[in-house]
């Protein structure tokens, strides 16, 4: 993998990086809460392949960086709809990290995805974020299925992502990798809680009318929400990078 841009230390274009150097490039900042959203898209902007899943446009380089970021984060944040569509059940341990990050699922309705009902011990069991509008019955079912400590109620009519992330940080889960989907990412951007975007551009064209990485009708001002690149790397035609999200 070669570095095209690293804002921290200018390097010769095309400089190769080792696995440990790549981990340093993608490391989360120490000592503070940090939310990084992670997506892959085709060159024509589709966040899914012909089968309706993001996995079909993944590349080996994207898979490697995807796994690396999971090793580096404290928690994986994902919407309940994406859990159902992509078949999430748990975050598996890796060679680098025997204890996986927590899987944190967001659901305003309070409906627990079926795959999460499988008992999982340890930190990988994760948390379920919902809101008061889910109602007493569904909250009770969620607590029965997952355990009372695993269900966090934040917000009234919708999940208050700022409060939810504060709750995660209080549990030692400061470095959060948001894996979507588009609705959750848009809500997080609107709430001003996203610090940066990790985006992979896969060297493929999908066509059709598949979804993009956001679902909001408009973000930011007339020109949209500003982002700026702080890292760009490339391998076999796959372009990967980190973009800092403006909070202004």
Structure description:
By secondary structure, the chain is an alpha/beta fold. Helix content is 23%, strand content 25%. Strand 1 and strand 2 form a beta hairpin. It is globular, with a radius of gyration of 18 Å.
Shape: globular
Helix/strand-derived category reads: alpha/beta
Measured by DSSP, the beta-strand proportion falls in 15-25%
Taking Cα atoms only, what radius of gyration do you get, to the nearest Å?
Answer: 18 Å
The parts where pLDDT drops under 50 for at least 5 residues are none
Percent helix range: 10-25%
User: Could you spell the SSE succession in H and E letters?
Assistant: EEHEHEHEEHEHEHEEE
How many β-strand runs?
11
| Major beta sheet summary | 11 strands, mixed
Q: Mean pLDDT across all residues, rounded? A: 89
- Give the strand order, joined by hyphens, for the main sheet: 2-1-10-11-9-3-8-4-5-6-7
Number of discrete helical segments: 6
